[in-house]
Design goal:
This protein is an alpha/beta fold. 42% of the residues lie in helices and 19% in strands.
């Protein structure tokens, strides 16, 4: 039985994917590493196959036509045999010692009455040229090292929210909530975290830095110029998150408050990128986005008293 499946979406990742895979290998037979080659044109496919041959039963190479980051994650979910599921991007890596600690904690939880839906840990902004790396932690919002529910979660600090880097989901929960990320779309990591939230009942937080989020390549999706160029994809994800919020009918007060705060941040990011692009067309898109957000909030507020004020 595999405790954890880890999907590594790879597209032309030959130069850095080995570091990612190597950081996960200490998980041994408890882990399943799904290297998803998303139609790469370099040596990614060969490297994935080589790792599968070298570590049979631990590494599995999955080859598919190019569908984008979201479709690579979808392939990981479809093929996952592990009880829990995580995504690690091919240019990122994990702390191997913390990985072992997480696996042991998941095993312990699986033996008891408190199997969790979402496991949260810290992550590190590993920015090139920065000596002191910023660690994103959640100790002000989440009870540490205990199973808890939304009612025990405190409000997040301004600008903080749970990212794909910090979350491990129960695999069947992702299937139960019907998660299907859009193809050929960047920024779907926000949708990956957001859409399953109404299905999450029990959580666990390990206050240790597990995931290392690499920042430094010029072509990264978080680069501002790249974000402006791909703004339509950011808007697509933003609108899908608005649709999720409108359809969820979340009654749990703290969960609803958290989801709305999350949505506020994503909509603000979209708006800033649209403004910074400086085009009339994008300013109109910003206006439309805010109108949609406002309309959905009004509809939600009519059915759920106490909803957060509109943007």
């Amino acid at each position: 039985m595999k405790i954890l499946s880890v999907a590594i979406p790879c597209y032309n990742s030959q130069d850095y994917m080995a570091k990612c895979i190597e950081s996960l290998l200490p998980g041994g037979s408890d882990i399943e590493i799904l290297v998803v080659d998303d139609g790469s044109k370099d040596e990614t496919a060969r490297i994935a196959d080589d790792y599968e041959k070298k570590y049979p039963g631990i590494v599995r190479a999955i080859h598919q036509e190019n569908g984008g980051h979201g479709e690579a994650v979808n392939a990981g979910i479809r093929n996952a045999a592990g009880i829990y599921f995580k995504v690690v991007d091919s240019d990122d890596w994990v702390d191997s010692e913390v990985l072992l600690e997480i696996i042991e904690k998941l095993k312990e939880l699986l033996k008891g009455p408190d199997t969790v839906d979402m496991f949260i840990s810290n992550f590190v902004y590993d920015k090139v040229g920065v000596r002191h790396k910023k660690v994103m932690q959640y100790r002000t919002a989440c009870p540490k090292e205990e199973v808890f529910t939304w009612s025990k979660m405190w409000p997040m600090l301004k600008g903080h929210y749970i990212l794909m880097h910090s979350v491990i989901y129960r695999t069947n929960l992702l299937r139960e909530c019907g998660l299907e990320l859009p193809k050929h779309t960047f920024y779907v990591d926000n949708l990956f975290v957001f859409q399953p939230l109404p299905y999450v009942k029990k959580m666990y937080y390990l206050d240790k830095p597990f995931y290392h989020y690499f920042i430094g390549r010029d072509d990264q999706s978080v680069n501002e110029a790249v974000m402006i160029r791909r703004i339509d994809q950011q808007i697509r994800v933003n609108k899908l998150m608005i649709d999720t919020m409108a359809a969820a009918k979340v009654s749990e007060k703290r969960l609803r408050s958290y989801m709305i705060s999350y949505l506020d941040i994503i909509t603000t990011v979209s708006s800033i990128m649209l403004i910074r692009s400086g085009t009339e067309e994008n300013l109109e898109k910003k206006k439309e986005l805010w109108q949609i957000s406002h309309q959905e909030r009004v509809l939600s507020a009519q059915g759920q008293k106490g909803l957060h004020p509109c943007l």
